[in-house]
Amino acid sequence: MPEAYIIDAVRSPIGRKKGSLAHLHPADLGAHPIKALVDRTGVDPSAIDDVVWGCTETIGAQAGDIGRTVWLVAGLPEEVPGVTIDRQCGSSQQAVHFAAQGVMSGTQDLVVAGGSQAMNRIPIMAAMIAGQAYGFDSPFIGSPGWDARYGNQEVDQIRSAEMIADKWGVSRADMETFSLASHQRAQAATEQGWFAREIAPLEGLDRDETIRPTTSLEGLAALKPVREGGLVTAGVASQNCDGSAALLIASARAVREHGLTPRARIHHLTVRGADPVWMLTAPIPATRHALAKAGMTIDDIDLFECNEAFASIPLAWMKDLGIPHEKVNVQGGAIALGHPLGATGARLMTTLLGALERTGGRYGLQTMCEGGGQANVTIIERL
């Protein structure tokens, strides 16, 4: 089977809530890493076969196939098409999967994959709220088929995070310790310049502004739970923010013909589903499935990225699979760096690639929980 290679990966800095990127039009936010990617690789943009782009809440300024719009706003050739993918939080990781699959099928040679999310302009759940304004129910209310299968029970990500903490014996103190580590690792990575290669400065911002270096266990312990009597607080959850990221995926033929130098090879691609009411547990069975399909074990993987939507998710995942925290999110995660929904999958891969190069690791595994009880897993091999 033909191989798919990662030629380069670049992202915007992450802008915090009401931060430096809040005023940007979503199309300009998304166009930014694409322009940087084309400039860095020197690839002829007219040779790109497609742009596969992740984004959720595709209403308003993010509507109308933003995967097409971001390419045009980047000032690149009109003959190159674009498509928008919504696999919830895993949208841009799925975009990379589709791009790699296009290359591995032999039908495409050069594909831009990535994603963006302008959460200041268009907040999470905006599409559901807009639908309710027109009298439409949410996806989980009013469907006899859904009720027959799952009952009339609450489907909510915070409830899921609480349920996971309870089932896997994750305490509030465990989550707060994990959250503190996320901020400390992200701050250290920033100070050491480990993000410098992956970030293309934007609007005068050359580093992530979501990191809180003054975070302390005492401060986290003082926060009120989101749900009365619960364990989850804002301090152990990912941040709403703005961000974008893009990767260039290429075939061996494109590498030869365009004189490109790959940074990594796509080793394995998996996406699996689990209980949609629990919603956030799928990374556990998906990781097991991916390793089995790839003929690998936990010990074969040098570094992991597991999205920190809520601290209980990677903690339960590590506990269930026996993965040491020392190998997970080594430069911080979404609790410190933010979770710009449609961009996060590509951001994680960009960071994972850089971390493998910095540490000399060979294999990296990335996974994340996604709405509907799903999870993508990607294994890459540093070259």
Let me know the number of strands: 9
Estimate percent helicity.
25-40%
Molecular shape: globular
Spatial separation of the terminal alpha carbons: 18 Å
How many helices? The count is 13
| SSE-based structural type | alpha/beta
Portion of residues in beta strands equals 15-25%
Uncertain runs: none
Radius of gyration based on Cα positions: 20 Å
Largest sheet: 9 strands, mixed
Strand order of the largest sheet: 3-2-4-5-1-6-9-8-7
What is the string of helix and strand elements? EHEHEHEHHHHHEHEHEHHHEE
| Average residue-wise pLDDT | 96
Keywords: Acyltransferase, Transferase
Active site: 89, 339, 369
Protein name: Acetyl-CoA C-acetyltransferase
Enzyme class: transferase
List the helices and strands and how they pair.
Blueprint: E1 5-11, H1 26-41, E2 50-54, H2 66-73, E3 82-85, H3 91-104, E4 110-118, H4 126-133, H5 144-150, H6 157-167, H7 172-191, H8 217-221, E5 242-250, H9 252-258, E6 264-273, H10 283-294, E7 303-306, H11 312-321, H12 334-337, H13 344-359, E8 363-370, E9 374-382
Parallel strand pairs: 2-3, 2-4, 7-8
Antiparallel strand pairs: 1-5, 1-6, 4-5, 6-9, 8-9
Helix pairs in contact: 1-2, 3-13
Report on this model:
- The structure is a single chain.
- The chain is of the alpha/beta class and 383 residues long.
- The protein contains 13 helices and 9 strands.
- Strands 3-2-4-5-1-6-9-8-7 form a 9-stranded mixed sheet, sandwiched between helices.
- Helix 2 links the parallel strand 2 and strand 3.
- It is globular.
- It holds the Pfam family Thiolase_C.
